[in-house]
């Protein structure tokens, strides 16, 4: 049975089911745990070596001195690997009842049936359910959990793993490389168009859990794919940690869209590194929705390395009481005629804090590049705070660079008009917020747009007074 819920506002985080684990590692991280994890997964020696080297880097790296406050994050009080008692299955009915109930509650099975080409579901440290439409498999599309991909396609895996996000990139990339488990491996052959989205769902269920999935996407020449990830966790009084790494390789003429709808509970530290390499005439779009967590630090990036490459980030951040959403994007123009656009929308209320942090870089000699940033913040009350930290590093004169930013509050005129039409103040504020975020929400598939509007309405409850 799910944990009873008495408050609609917290219902999205309150439910949880008791689960059992076949490998319940102790809290904290050491060499013994890394050896145990690698042995459990029957990995090749070269991967164990990578893990151990990354652990050394993790110990040496300091926490970032910029961004959100991470001083309360206790690495010694985290479970770095929990293996559920279930094996991976391909039929929904074969999942254990407690895990199946969790995913039924989240609506994953219905989404798979109605509008997805494939589904991956991760619970704690392991992917337990995976499916893909038969016609895609027949075209050579690979959609596997990352652990299985390491065993089945070691040459491809070794060619790309850690090439965009090396362990030395930052402290949390090093941590992920040391203890990664689960995640998605997606390979789209040349010329194949995947018309319906592939989705992965990541669920933290246990208290003090650390989830460290590793996602690797390779879109060959002139292919296309839309990958969606969703995240959630129940609320606890102590902190959990989500620290993922995503590497995407978009080959010549390919198109990749990566959508995140993140709704972690307010006790989760969400510290993620996401990066794409974009070749000639290819395009990469990140749609990044951040509604939950205690702290988020996430800056999806595009390395535009081929002529005519395009990159876009649509970033949405929503912070309430005790939340800090430090989100943004990075665009690196490393070839001629590359274009990028960043649209950032943030809302803060009840003392929440949002920050836009971005980097736009044009390399010397990269001619005729264009980059544009639109950064808009909506502050709901006097207790809340919004900051903008844009960095522009333009080393080439033959370039077009645009940046615009606005900070506003809810208009009294808008509220008066909507309330004069019979709406409550709370409902009127919710409509105004949805309208403010509409440029990003409209980019989502219909079902996800409806869901994110519902989540925002839940977040808005209690905003008045």
Structure description:
By secondary structure, the protein is an alpha/beta fold. It has two domains: 20-298, no CATH class; 413-465, no CATH class. The chain is built from twelve helices and 25 strands. Strands 5, 6, 8, 9, 11, 12, 14, 15, 17, 18, 20, 22 and 24 form a 13-stranded mixed β-sheet that branches. The chain has a ten-stranded mixed β-sheet with strand order 4-3-7-10-13-16-19-21-23-25. Strand 3 and strand 4 (126-132) form a beta hairpin. Helix 10 (412-420) packs across helix 11. It is globular, with a radius of gyration of 22 Å. The relative contact order is 0.09. Mean pLDDT is 84; it is low at 1-21. One of its GO terms (biological process) is iron-sulfur cluster assembly. This is Fe-S cluster assembly protein SufB. Residues 38-199 form the SUF system FeS cluster assembly SufBD N-terminal domain.
How many domains, as an integer? 2
Strand content: 35-45%
Largest β sheet strand count, sense and barrel closure: 13 strands, mixed
Mean pLDDT: 84
Between the first and last Cα atoms, what is the distance in angstroms? 35 Å
**Structural class by secondary-structure content:** alpha/beta
Which radius of gyration do the C-alpha atoms yield? 22 Å
Number of strands: 25
What is the count of helical runs? 12
- The percent of residues in helical segments reads 25-40%
Low-confidence stretches: 1-21
Net shape:
globular
Family: Belongs to the iron-sulfur cluster assembly SufBD family.
Domain SUF system FeS cluster assembly SufBD N-terminal: 38-199
Domain SUF system FeS cluster assembly SufBD core: 202-436
Protein name: Fe-S cluster assembly protein SufB
């Amino acid at each position: 049975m799910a944990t009873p819920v008495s408050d609609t506002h917290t219902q999205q985080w309150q439910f949880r089911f008791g689960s059992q684990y076949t490998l319940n590692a102790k809290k904290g991280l050491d060499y013994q745990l890394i050896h145990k994890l690698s042995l459990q997964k029957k990995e090749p020696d070269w991967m164990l070596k990578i893990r151990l080297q990354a652990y050394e880097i993790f110990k040496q790296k300091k926490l970032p001195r910029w961004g959100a406050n991470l001083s309360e994050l206790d690495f010694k009080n985290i479970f770095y690997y929990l293996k559920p008692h279930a094996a991976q299955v391909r039929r929904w009915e074969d999942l254990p009842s407690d895990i199946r109930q969790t995913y039924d509650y989240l609506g994953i099975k219905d989404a798979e049936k109605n509008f997805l080409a494939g589904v991956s579901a991760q619970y704690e440290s392991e992917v337990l359910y995976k499916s893909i439409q038969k016609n895609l498999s027949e075209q050579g599309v690979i959609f596997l959990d990352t652990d299985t991909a390491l065993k089945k396609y070691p040459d491809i895996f070794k060619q790309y793993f850690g090439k965009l996000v090396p362990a030395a990139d930052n402290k949390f990339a090093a941590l992920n490389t040391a203890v990664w488990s689960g995640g998605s491996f997606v390979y789209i052959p040349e010329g194949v168009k995947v018309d319906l989205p592939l989705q992965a769902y990541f669920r933290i269920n246990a208290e003090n859990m650390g989830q460290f999935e590793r996602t690797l996407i390779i879109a060959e020449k002139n292919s296309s794919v839309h990958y969606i990830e969703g995240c959630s966790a129940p609320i606890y009084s102590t902190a959990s940690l989500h620290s993922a790494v995503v590497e995407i390789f978009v080959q010549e003429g390919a198109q990749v869209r990566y959508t995140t709808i993140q709704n972690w509970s307010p006790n989760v530290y969400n510290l993620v590194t996401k990066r794409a390499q974009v070749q000639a005439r290819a395009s990469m779009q990140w749609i990044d929705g951040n509604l939950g967590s205690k702290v988020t630090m996430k800056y999806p990036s595009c390395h535009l390395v081929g002529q005519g490459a395009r990159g876009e980030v649509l970033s949405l951040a929503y912070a309430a009481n005790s939340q800090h959403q430090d989100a943004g994007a990075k665009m690196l123009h490393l070839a001629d005629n590359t274009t990028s656009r960043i649209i950032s929308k943030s809302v803060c209320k009840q003392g929440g804090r949002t920050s836009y942090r971005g980097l736009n870089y044009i390399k010397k000699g990269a001619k005729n590049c264009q980059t544009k940033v639109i950064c808009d913040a909506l502050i709901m009350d006097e207790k809340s705070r919004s900051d903008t930290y844009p960095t522009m590093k333009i080393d080439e004169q033959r370039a077009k660079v645009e940046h615009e930013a606005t900070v506003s509050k809810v208009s009294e005129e808008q509220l008066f008009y909507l309330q004069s039409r019979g709406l409550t103040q709370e409902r009127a504020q919710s409509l105004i917020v949805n309208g403010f975020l509409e440029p990003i929400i409209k980019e989502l598939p219909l079902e996800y747009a409806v869901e994110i509007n519902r989540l925002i309405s839940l977040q808005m409850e209690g905003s008045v007074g």
